[in-house]
Protein 1
Amino acid sequence: MRLLFGLLAATALTACTQATVNSTEITEPVKAAVVPAAITSNASASTWYNTGASDIAAANAAMASINTKRGSAKNIILFVGDGMGVSTVSAARIRDGQIKGGQGEENQLSFDKFPFTGLSKTYNVDAQTPDSAGTMTAMMTGVKTNIGVIGISRPETRNDCAAAKAVEIPSALQHAELMGKMTGIISTARITHATPAATYAHSANRGWEDISDMPKAAIEAGCIDIAAQFVNLPDRLKAADASYDDIGIDVAFGGGRRHFLPKDAAFNSSDADSDIEGDRTDGRDLTKEWVEKTGGQYVMDQAGFDTITTTPVLGLFSESHMRYDSDRSKDNRGEPSLAQMTAKAIDLLDDNENGFFLMVEAGRIDHGHHAGNAYNALQDTISLSEAVDAARQATSDKDTLIIVTADHSHVMTFAGYPKRGNPILGPVVGVGKDTPNLADDGKPYTTLSYANGRGFGDLGDSTDADALYDVDINAGRQLTLDVDTTKPGFRQEALVPLNSETHGGEDVAIYASGPGAHLVSGVHEQNVIFHIMNHAGGLTGE
Ligand SMILES: [Zn+2]
């Protein structure tokens, strides 16, 4: 039989060929692109083939137009999906596509469209599977460190205040402040929590979020709690460089009021969760101190957020972490979404001729996973995708480097042989089937499950994953056909019973666009992310 070949008319292929070939390297005429008739005669095959070819054309165009010069990124935005491993991204992409009415697999999250990606090796100096403190320190300072410490280098310093003070490393945000950029931090966790803390603080223990969390010896040795370090950042920057004359972080949005307020009910906010909202045992009201020091505006709810028109601004929207995105509407004073906070921050920061540095953390992907609740982990990943989209629309890839990555993974797996378009939160229904597959034990099984954690649980329509800690640990095979596994309150099965599901140790992805983004290619140690931002932004000098 004679094979038939057809010519593909798609201009994408032509463009691809032209972009790839450098004229000095041509030794023989370029052959016309030929595509087998088995492809051109089949609509589905043609679509896959043509979109694949277009991707290559776009990749070549991105490579050709990238600005590789040191210091070419005026603005830098670092997005961190806390605990957003690759399986989380894949599942969230499908969930997002299915919510939008598609089959799901074909969908793209906003950062799926970024032209450059690489992998990040996340281990800490002393830990194979890392935590957020050590990993964010690597990304913010360029140096890997131990698990549990923030902004300090030396491995043997955990809890040792005096030793830690001698090895504090400036962060990318601190460099940005010193070079006259505006700066912002956003987190759906407490802004004193490990990831945001690593942008501005140095601490021998990530847990020292306010003075009541610190041992007496550390206080006596002169160590300062993380919330107080947020307030005294301008003093520390001035100590590092006497010419510094600014107020520190210009925009901060997140949760964590309890670490800023005195342990006194008289200081409670109108939506305090506890009888006494504040934790501070030194009587200081850091929200008031920050306003007096900076002349800025402090807001604590959606209405306050909506009034913001200028910097500096501190928004603390919750006593502890902000709510899960799917639970946000239940807040009685209202909380802005991650996308709203990101758009507002960029709007406030981008008037500066020196540009800005902004860190945005989707902090509760991690918390959904720890609770064994994929529903919220995926929804908060979608919320991050929307925030990245907002950032891309508000900036130009000519002058703004955007990096999206995770600090570490989790042990959620994406498995079985579900058919195309099967609900990602559902039980596995095989190709050509209409009812759930049954395992050898006669029970159904979900596409998403956890290697460890609290295991099966079912709170139905409850959207607060933290409530699942009130459901007993139920490891192993517990699922029955009558359970709706797609509900927000469902807790996936887990093999190893643990109080809290753990982080995963495999690599996470890095996505990048804008000047310097080409450096995000290959397998990097996590601390290289600082050096990419430093090269692109010239943070430590041209
Ligand atoms: Zn975690």
Protein 2
Amino acid sequence: MFVGAAGRWCRRIAERREKDAEGGRPVNHCTCRWNSSSVGERIRQYTVGKKIHGFTVNQVTAVPDLFLTAVKLNHDNTGAQYLHIARDDPNNLFSVQFRTTPLNSTGVPHILEHVVLCGSEKYQCRDPFFKMLTRSLATFMNAFTASDYTMYPFSTQNSKDFQNLLSVYLDAAFFPCLRELDFWQEGWRLEHETPDDPGSPLVFKGVVFNEMKGVFANNENLYAQHLQNKLLPDHTYSVISGGDPLHIPKLTWEELKSFHATHYHPSNARFFTYGDLPLEQHLQQIQEEALCKFHNIDPGTSVPIQPRWSEPRECHVTCGPDSLAPDPAKQTTYSVSFLLGDITDSFETFTLSLLSSLLVSGPNSPFYKALIDTRIGTDFSPSVGYDGSTREACFSVGLQGIAEHDIKTVKQIITKIIDEVIENGFEEERIEALLHKVEIQLKHQTTHFGLALATYVATNWNHDGDPVEMLRISEKVARFRQSLKDNPHFLQDKVKQYFKENPHQLALSMSPDVGYLENQTKVEKGKLQEKVNSLSLEERQEIYKKGLELIAAQSTSQDASSLPALEISDIQQTFPLTPVEMSYVEGEVPVQYCSQPTNGIVYFKAFTNLNTLPEELKPYVPLFCNVITRMGCGNLDYRQQDQQIELKTGGMAVSPKILQDNDNLDMYEQGVLFTSLCLDRNLPDMMQLWMDIFNSPRFEDEEHLRVLVMMAAQELANGIPDSGHQYAAVRAGKTLTSAGRLQEMFNGISQVQHMKRIAEKPELLSVLRKLPRIKMHLLNNENMRCSVNATTQVIAEASKEVEKFIRNIPGFGKKKKDKKLIRSNITEKALNPEEAGGEVSAGSGATKKLVFEPTFKACQMKTHFQLPFPVNYVSECVRTVPYMNPDFTKLHVLARLLTAKFLHREIREKGGAYGGGVNLSHSGLFTFYSYRDPNSIDTISAFRRSVDWAKAGKFTQEDIDEAKLSVFSTVDAPVAPSDKGLDRFLYGISDEMKQKRREELFAVDHGGLVGVANKHLTTGHSTWGAAILGPENESIARDPTWVQR
Ligand SMILES: [Zn+2]
């Protein structure tokens, strides 16, 4: 999850979430409903002035819209601030954040964030953070460095686990060892390329050093970073808190320690807890284990207000060319940014963020019409819209993918639109649509509400704003409405004040320079040479010695027994069931109903298959999905359609989906998933929209298709540096299963290249004509199944609407006999696991139609995609077994075991990559990966060595238990009400099947793990595929077994 201009740097690879259909802000997501249970009761005993474990309560506020009560406290001796959010949600969260405001780009806060988690007074063993991942049932563990604060959050549903993790986090933050060896490993170091060969050249190494190289390989990140640095040039925002790879090697260990002493002090700390666990226990533990050892200091970390400019500024920067850019001749980015006001004024902040949405969001916004629809560029510039991640907020608007000579045009358009908005204001319906969005986001529930709240209030609170005030969203909506009523020009006046009459604005352009990467490398080499030349003989020997020392430390097995841990016996033998009901429309189209506490929202999903679609149309399915809700339908053009979607729904999205069969790796379902949500009262309108999309989608507007194609191509190209490991993994699996082949076509590098080719076409008429052909095969009820999640009271009404939809879309009326499948390789299976086992005759009951390719032959393929990145993304996949095979669970545990006990050490600690490990997913592919990795072939050899290590059985019962715990933490991760029953709907996995897997999981033992390693991961017995995305590589080029792309 990334917020802010330049993103945040995290300790672990952040779980990347699918982009929200509506691109919602993180604030308004709830996880569960309120009932006046013990949580509410308990919190009422806190009254202002009450003293408890060294803290004093200074505010108690109920926020009924979000079903929570906020308690603000202060620590008497140190001034530490504390916010507790009591809510009836078992997914409890803790976070501590420090204001970290560096004045240079050595990355000191970021490197410190890494190093504090490497060992502390009480937990001396190396890297307790990563060790706790397998000793806990945490639902989230990470650490972030933002531009001006550093945050350490975790969440868990288990109270013993909460205390364990709290103890480790407190000790890490306040009493870290900050060992020199850890600074070298995580930050930067000079070391021989081959550490035990003093004859090999000295090079820079370090996890953060490589992480930041990877971050700035993405031109969007680079642009956003420049933008922040130059718009706020007078204090901490003028530097890179994550670290500039060219400046990181200036940081010393002493500076790191002194930064900790001044910044990681309770007087500079903000504690946040959330959930249904008692506050008193948290306060006691925090007081006893940390705060009682400190006294008040003045940390002096506050950020001054940026002095205002008297006139606008302009600036130009360069970047590396992007070989996947939709149009290589148009790679310039240009935007104009405005410094707004103080973010601690929460109503002004709220107003300005709404105003920004009105200006740039969706095809009805004035900037979209004037900049995107005119096709001067491919998409908006990075950081477009409102950005509240700094002491004072900014607004930015512009384009990427433009020709350099179009800069002037873009500039003129921006000025013109601002004038027009001041003159004409906004349509009332658009304002209503936006306020509707706020309402729906308040009610929509996700699984990480605590984390969303903690990050939502973090920046404001960091600058001494009132975090509780920010949560009172309904009051702000009311005040906003009143302001509009009192002054119809309320918004226009703001535009005038903040945009028209604001001299503090920056016009920033960025264009590629062919010599950019070469130059960066040269500068880095120069810095390296400078350092090396200045070394005395003793210093050189010292470096050699330290390199060996680090390897020795990394290689010794660690006694982690001082760390707290959950036991297998702490895990529930069973899990809460999710009952669903099935009904059939016309005895044919199955609809799954799941009643859930959804806060007045209905979630509707549908799946249709692609079995009749001609092969040559398949590569266009992702594009079809991307545009089908954005081209207009029925009487609505694309603008009107977008307006309706905004007014009546919380988002409508379509995506290609490949569903691997549970029993056979050569079988899969291929199709498209439709997802949507709306307030109960709007369900008829939403289903009408779906009906119009299915019956009469509009495929007329070639111009608008061009706009959507350019945006999609640009987004895909931009996404590769952040998701390179996923692209490598999809490619590595391409030749191992037939589903993997399709996966590569839909979600792999092939799709990125395919979209680039479409974007390059001079006309798109031929593409446009394919869309109605795809529609014929996809948008009908012949091979459809639907699901509805809603509250019990609404289900009956919802079923009427869903039935009406199904009856009124194409498909019905045809006799079943006529529905011939176009291909003979389709096999039918019962959708309901309970009906499985018996023979299923075609057409009776609910079935799924799987593609079955018995003749598919898995084969080995190794592909190197040469891309202009300073780091590699490496993946290797092994074809193993499907979900229902008894070996699946063992392989799942083995994957965790290999990651935690072998690959983490080899790939991250020794190799210096940001991350690495192995996963087993439903696809049945055992997938090794590395992320932002300085190595390539060495990493593949580490993958292979991990298998040898597993076969040799060199692991203990404790290691196995930890790996199991780690698997359980994902199996038992909280599921949002919108997604309950989803496994069953998509894959036909019932609660009984899950329970069976669960029992097998408890039973996994040493022999079983060694057995599956031998049986499924031995070359010769199994088929492997590999892929690397990364720079030119001599040893790969020399090796004929690698295909170069
Ligand atoms: Zn990091």
